Amino acid sequence: MTLIKSISGIRGTIGGAPAENLTPIDAVKFAAAYGSWLKEYSGKNKLKVVIGRDARLSGEMIQNLVVYTLVGLGIDVVDLGLSTTPTVEIAVPIEEADGGIILTASHNPKQWNALKLLNEKGEFLDAAQGAIILELAEKEAFEFSEVDDLGKITRNDAYMDIHVDEVLNLALIDAETIKKAGFKVVVDGVNSTGGIAIPKLLAALGVEVVELYCDPTGHFPHNPEPLKEHLGDICKLVVEEKADFGIVVDPDVDRLAFITDQGEMFGEEYTLVACADYVLGKTKGDTVSNLSSSRALRDITEKHGRKYEAAAVGEVNVVTKMKEIGAVIGGEGNGGIIYPESHYGRDALVGTAMFLMLMAERGGSVQQLRDNYPSYFMSKKKIALTPDLDVDGILRSMADKYADEDISTIDGVKIDFPENWVHLRKSNTEPIIRIYTEAKSQSEADELADRIIKEIRSVAGID
Length: 463
Prior knowledge:
This protein has 463 residues and is α/β, with parallel strands linked by helices. It is built from 15 helices and 20 strands. The relative contact order is 0.10.
């Protein structure tokens, strides 16, 4: 059982002992720390916070704990109930709220949950703000309101429909163009809120929908991370239904993956590539992704005559770099699309609409589209950590070993070889070292990852 406190929020497994897992006590303490920080940060006497959750089994319990903790601090709450991460993000500024909390452990299995924290723009907090909240939680430096000053709760379950409308109103999205294409699409909503939001969007765009695991019970039918090894059912169903493609989202709907008409993975890394290809064909501007994302985005960006830049891993880092260079689209290679004309957050609804527009205008099959993009293959592996390991020392040793190569240390260690690369970093959300590699073939990417893992184990003295 695990509790991970980081600048991006608090994430853990349900049950067990406080301070070791995500128990009710930990949920209340961290919500109180966020609310206390928000009162100090905003300088206002009366605050409003938007709350939403994915469909995981512990969601209602954690939501009630968080909502009533904020009420106890004198903060008004707009409770969206079942929602998505990007839906909460767009709701914050619409509601003119002072912040937001999304209750989701994203791609983690059902025993996990988390509090993900937003500012008044509906964007994730920066490192300095997150550090203050962690300190407040540690000190339990809270002062709750007296009875006449308690917050009030407003429940609003309309925001997924509002979110769909916001996507339809984007200048680059034309519903009639998509409707005329007559698409048939299979949707895997992993029995969470994507099973509500994505079919709503597709219906509004005139797309025929075949639903798979779209009942938001929180009983995930497979590992909720949208990777090839977890998606056999939808790959089979796309072919059986003779669908144009399949759509897969994670439980909180900020990651997006496609299945080709041949029942093959389009490639999570290529979600951003395709969406950027569409946007750059309509808008002059640059792109950003993180260090662990595919070189294919760089290639497509340069094909459009624009500039690509890399940021440290983490949505807040990508957003910061996007704002710095004025990027017109960015995101992460895990299927996260960030389109500033909508909002600065990963959004599977926006990505889905862009992909439909790209396919409607270009014609052909999804498999043909994929075959036309630069061909790179990634390996994503990990090494479990134990408390006695000096992870920073291990990463320094690997950087020293490859000092003659092109090295970046802004986030872990990335080693760029002429024909491939490897990125090593300590996860912010799990007790692991992530090892990402990319090469011109899957076997080469896997072999590079296995070689680096052996070298790390040797440096760390792991059997």
